[in-house]
Amino acid sequence: MQIKELADRAGVTVKAVRYYESRGLLTPARASNGYREYGDADVQVVREIRALLSLGLTADETVPFVDCLRAGHDRADVCPASLEAYRTRIADIERRIAELSALRDELTTLLQDAESYRSEETA
After folding, report:
1. pLDDT for 82-99, tens place per residue?
2. Which residues form a coiled coil (predicted)?
3. Domain count, the chain
4. 35, HSE (Cβ side, Cα atoms, 13 Å)
5. Which residue range is the domain that position 79 belongs to?
């Protein structure tokens, strides 16, 4: 199938397919006329990439999942490298939550201090 059909079947834009190809996540065959040719397995790969990107993974972080599919697995997340990518992403999210919680606490303290100061000033 050509790039437009792949994009339509996978629910992405042609631009997204080209981006995935530029990142090395897709490697289409080339027809004699130079057009990209994709197989049915590429539809699953693109859908998987899109799903992982929607979870906040970067294109580079999707590589283990794509490799898992390319190795013939029905699921992209059953290989050890995919599981490790999940663990890494979860750890990153937990770190960000801790940073945001600390920021919230600091802002809450500043707000309370400002409100207290304002109350004393108007009294």
Report:
1. 999 999 999 999 999 999
2. 83-120
3. 1
4. 9
5. 3-122
